[in-house]
């Protein structure tokens, strides 16, 4: 097993009476780890804690051996962190190059020549080299998202935190972004928060499922899929005992849960495993 | 898919990282954006255009550098206001565009970013300093320049820009709202530009960045009595204090920043208190002004037959005065042609820069007063004073001439000039070449009647050589008290006045 890039134990955080994180422990290793969960599960909160944007009430974690609980440790973590927030803001009058250069400076890349080479490199990596001189307000949504990814990648961070980066992108843009994230995951640790089980299935060597602020599953996508083995079946009517069920394109119902005796079992998917991992959580899965 | 990543370029070596170096790197980044922001570009273009427009013809080509330094102070306020606005908007950029949460997890802390914003206004201040230096140098290299400028006065423009810029950053940290800066701008415009009387230089008015005192007459630099050095200290302290306060408000709690606030505040307060105390003249300055007005220590030099006594700073200009004296004297006849004159530079400095007292005419024979300004109308005025002494013997007597001698006097004063009729217009208070009028001179004014004006105008329209021969030939009669204007006209070969002048009746 790889040495963990991130090691967290017992992370808890409350917003007033709301329990946003509940005793979260996890270890992240190089490669892309998917973070799945319904809205309000605590994904963004966990990412913000790991990105040092907010401190946890309890618990501790290290990033590449540095403890963000101290001021110097936090700085060391930030030096090794690339963060793409859920709704990245932009300075619309900046060009793509200027914005990434600006972020690079805030990451304390001080040598001007080397920094500019690095900015050009990451813009090339996200396929924006041709539009680097264009103002951000003139770029499409997908291009802006890639600018944000380039800003996260600049400085070659060892730990990359991506919070729902594909939201709002059309299928082609999502495909392109998936490629970029896959490339970014080579040699570094990427934590990818997403609602798209498809993204996780195609990108991640590991998946963490959260609900109500707690970790419900932590394993490989295959293991999550395997959780649904023997718990997915087809029927002509929605099975009342199913935890989730929906009519498919063929007109039959696909049910997930504890199948009745003699049910016609179907091959499970990652999404089936995800739904079962949420079992008992507040998430509502409707037909 | 149009783009498939097959090869990821390797990360480049990004060089050393460090807080201070990063602050400087960000300051450079922000400075470039600040200097290229629309308000700042417009302000600098307007400023440069103003320098060119003004300096081409300022002080009629004969600047006194102790006046020039103050003249560099007002326009940088326009640049300062633009820098205030742009620096404020830059410091609020992350708030305006919702990037604060993102930037907060980057390595550079908010207070270091604020420090970089404060530093980013320095190049604008330096560029202003270049403009100020250029304007001053342009004036200083004019052949007629005299005197010396004060470095402290020259620093006021750049320091004003620095103060306004750091204040804009502080404003962004205290009021995290973009409309705040424009409102403050309007307020500043009213209080600093419209609310500051140019001549008012009380202790309180020195709290404004620019105290643009103007004086009708130039004073020697050691008699100005402006607490310029204290004012520069006050501005520097205030600018740095605003910067340190902005950094403190942004979250820096370290000892260096706290000490910086205290130290720079002390500088600003010290400068403010001392300049307020220095706004009123000291007993020594009052005595020096009195001495310069009554019995000044002048440096006397000989040019040709005459002696020229000037305040030391004006000594290089004595040759120019001698040129005028020689031209006038060459047109005279009789004993006046070889008379030794003493030209004395005189001022009334007793009321400081606000004083506008008339200088009384000299009663000593063959002595002429010259002021501290030169060029433009001052040349025919001085020329008239020289002619008056050559015709009447003393300045005092020249001021009382009402008879036909005035014709000869004015012809001597004006005929040698490039455009005599225009010089006649400029030397008269009413700016015309017809009717009676007061004629300006460095001391008591002269007066021309309507008839004398008509005769002088006719003479100036004729060839100077022809009239000159007549002047020399009839010098004694033309300069005799009581000679009428009609007789003078007759002797000089032009038509006389239609009626007797009022003072001859």
Short description, anyone?
The complex is a heterodimer of chains A (287) and B (505). Chain A is 31% helix and 26% strand.
Please describe the topology of this protein.
The complex is a heterodimer of chains A (287) and B (505).
Chain A: E1 6-15, E2 18-28, E3 31-36, H1 43-50, E4 58-63, H2 71-79, E5 81-84, H3 96-106, H4 112-125, H5 141-153, E6 159-163, H6 171-184, E7 189-193, H7 197-203, E8 206-211, E9 214-219, H8 221-226, E10 232-235, E11 242-247, E12 253-257, E13 264-265, H9 270-277
Parallel strand pairs in A: 3-7, 3-8, 5-6, 6-7
Antiparallel strand pairs in A: 1-2, 1-4, 8-9, 10-12, 10-13, 11-12
Helix pairs in contact in A: 3-4, 3-5, 4-5
Chain B: H1 19-35, H2 38-57, H3 65-71, H4 76-91, H5 93-96, H6 100-103, H7 110-120, H8 122-140, H9 151-174, H10 180-194, H11 228-249, H12 255-279, H13 283-294, E1 299-303, E2 306-310, H14 318-330, E3 342-345, E4 367-370, H15 378-392, H16 395-398, H17 405-414, H18 420-427, E5 437-439, E6 446-448, H19 450-461, H20 464-473, H21 475-478, H22 485-492
Parallel strand pairs in B: 2-3, 3-4
Antiparallel strand pairs in B: 1-2, 5-6
Helix pairs in contact in B: 1-7, 2-4, 2-8, 4-9, 4-10, 7-9, 7-11, 8-9, 9-11, 11-12, 14-15, 15-17, 17-19
Written account of the structure:
The complex is a heterodimer of chains A (287) and B (505). By secondary structure, chain A is an alpha/beta fold. Chain A is built from 9 helices and 13 strands. Chain A has helices spanning 43-50, 71-79, 96-106, 112-125, 141-153, 171-184, 197-203, 221-226, 270-277, and strands at residues 6-15, 18-28, 31-36, 58-63, 81-84, 159-163, 189-193, 206-211, 214-219, 232-235, 242-247, 253-257, 264-265. In chain A, the strands form 3 sheets. Chain A has a 6-stranded mixed β-sheet with strand order 5-6-7-3-8-9, with helices on both faces. In chain A, α3 (96-106) crosses α4 (112-125) and α4 packs across α5 (141-153). Chain A is globular, with a radius of gyration of 21 Å. Chain A starts with 5 loop residues before the first strand and ends in a 10-residue tail after the last helix. By secondary structure, chain B is mainly alpha-helical. In chain B, 55% of the residues lie in helices and 5% in strands. Chain B is built from 22 helices and 6 strands. Chain B has a 4-stranded mixed β-sheet with strand order 1-2-3-4. Chain B has a two-stranded antiparallel sheet with strand order 5-6. In chain B, β1 and β2 form a beta hairpin. In chain B, α14 (318-330) packs across α15 (378-392) and α17 (405-414) packs across α19 (450-461). The longest helix of chain B has 25 residues, at 255-279. Chain B starts with 18 loop residues before the first helix and ends in a 13-residue tail after the last helix. At the A-B interface, α2, α3, α4 and α6 of A face α1 and α6 of B.
């Amino acid at each position: 097993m790889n040495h963990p890039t991130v090691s967290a134990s017992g992370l808890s955080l409350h917003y007033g009476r709301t329990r946003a994180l509940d005793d979260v422990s996890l270890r992240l290793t190089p490669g892309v780890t998917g973070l799945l969960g319904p809205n309000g599960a605590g994904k963004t909160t966990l990412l913000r804690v790991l990105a040092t944007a907010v401190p946890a009430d309890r618990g501790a974690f290290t990033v590449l051996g540095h403890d963000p609980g101290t001021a110097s440790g936090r700085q060391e973590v930030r030096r090794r962190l690339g963060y793409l927030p859920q709704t990245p803001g932009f300075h619309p009058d900046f060009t793509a190059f200027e914005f990434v250069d600006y972020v690079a400076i805030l990451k304390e890349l001080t040598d001007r020549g080397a920094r500019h080479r690095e900015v050009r490199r990451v813009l090339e990596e996200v396929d924006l080299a041709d539009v680097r001189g264009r103002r951000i307000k003139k770029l499409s949504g997908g291009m802006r998202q890639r600018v944000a990814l380039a800003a996260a990648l600049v400085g070659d961070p060892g730990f990359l935190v991506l919070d729902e980066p594909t939201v709002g992108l059309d299928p082609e843009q999502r495909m392109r972004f998936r490629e970029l994230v896959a490339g970014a995951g080579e040699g570094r640790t990427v934590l990818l928060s997403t609602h798209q089980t498809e993204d996780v299935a195609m990108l991640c060597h590991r998946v963490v499922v959260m609900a109500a602020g707690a970790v419900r599953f932590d394993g490989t996508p295959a293991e999550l899929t395997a959780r649904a083995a023997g718990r997915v079946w087809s029927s002509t009517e929605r099975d009342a005992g199913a935890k989730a069920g929906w009519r498919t394109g063929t007109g039959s119902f696909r049910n997930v849960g504890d199948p009745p005796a003699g049910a016609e079992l179907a091959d499970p998917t990652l999404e089936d495993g995800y739904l079962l991992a949420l079992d008992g959580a507040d998430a509502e899965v409707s037909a | 898919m149009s783009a498939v990543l097959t090869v990821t370029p390797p990360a480049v070596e990004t060089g050393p990282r460090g807080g201070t170096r990063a602050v400087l790197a960000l300051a450079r980044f922000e400075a470039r954006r600040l200097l290229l922001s629309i308000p700042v570009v417009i302000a600098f273009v307007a400023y440069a255009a103003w320098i060119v427009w003004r300096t081409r013809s300022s002080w009629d080509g004969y600047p006194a550098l102790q006046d020039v330094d103050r003249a560099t102070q007002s326009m940088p306020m326009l640049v300062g206001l633009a820098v205030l606005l742009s620096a404020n908007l830059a410091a609020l950029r992350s708030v305006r565009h919702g990037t604060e949460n993102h930037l907060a997890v980057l390595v550079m802390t908010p207070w270091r970013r604020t420090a970089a914003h404060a530093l980013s206004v320095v190049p604008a201040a330096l560029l202003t300093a270049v403009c100020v230096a250029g304007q001053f140098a342009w004036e200083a290299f004019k052949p007629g320049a005299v005197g010396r400028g004060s470095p402290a006065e020259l620093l006021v423009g750049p320091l004003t820009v620095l103060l306004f810029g750091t204040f804009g950053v502080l404003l962004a940290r205290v009021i995290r709202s973009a409309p705040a800066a424009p409102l403050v701008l309007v307020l500043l415009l009213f209080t600093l530009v419209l609310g500051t009387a140019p001549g008012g230089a009380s202790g309180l008015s020195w709290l404004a960045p620019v105290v643009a005192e103007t004086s009708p007459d130039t004073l020697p630099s050691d008699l100005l009595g402006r607490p310029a050095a204290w004012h520069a200290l006050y501005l520097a302290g205030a600018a740095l204090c605003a910067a340190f306060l902005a950094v403190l408000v942004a979250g820096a709690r370290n000892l260096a920043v706290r000490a910086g606030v205290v130290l720079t505040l002390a500088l600003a307060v010290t400068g403010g208190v001392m300049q307020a105390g220095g706004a009123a003249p000291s007993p020594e300055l009052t005595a020096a002004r009195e001495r310069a007005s009554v019995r000044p220590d002048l440096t006397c030099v000989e040019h040709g037959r005459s002696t020229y006594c000037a305040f030391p700073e004006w000594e290089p200009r004595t040759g120019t005065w001698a040129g005028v004296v020689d031209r006038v004297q060459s047109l005279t006849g009789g004993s006046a042609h070889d008379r030794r004159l003493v030209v004395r530079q005189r001022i009334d400095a007793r009321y400081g820069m606000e004083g506008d007292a008339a200088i009384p005419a000299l009663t000593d024979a063959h002595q002429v007063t010259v002021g501290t300004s030169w060029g433009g109308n001052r040349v025919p005025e001085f020329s008239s004073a020289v002619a008056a002494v050559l015709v009447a013997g003393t300045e005092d007597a020249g001021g009382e001439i009402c008879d036909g001698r005035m014709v000869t006097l004015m012809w001597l004063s004006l005929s040698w000039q490039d455009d005599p009729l225009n010089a006649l217009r400029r030397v008269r208070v009413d700016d015309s070449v017809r009717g009676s009028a007061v004629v300006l001179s460095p001391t008591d004014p002269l007066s021309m009647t309507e008839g004398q004006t008509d005769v002088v105008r006719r003479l100036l329209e004729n060839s100077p050589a022809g009239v000159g021969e007549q002047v020399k030939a009839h010098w004694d009669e033309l300069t005799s008290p009581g000679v009428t204007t009609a007789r003078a006209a007759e002797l000089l070969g032009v038509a006389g006045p239609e009626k007797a002048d009022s003072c001859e009746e």
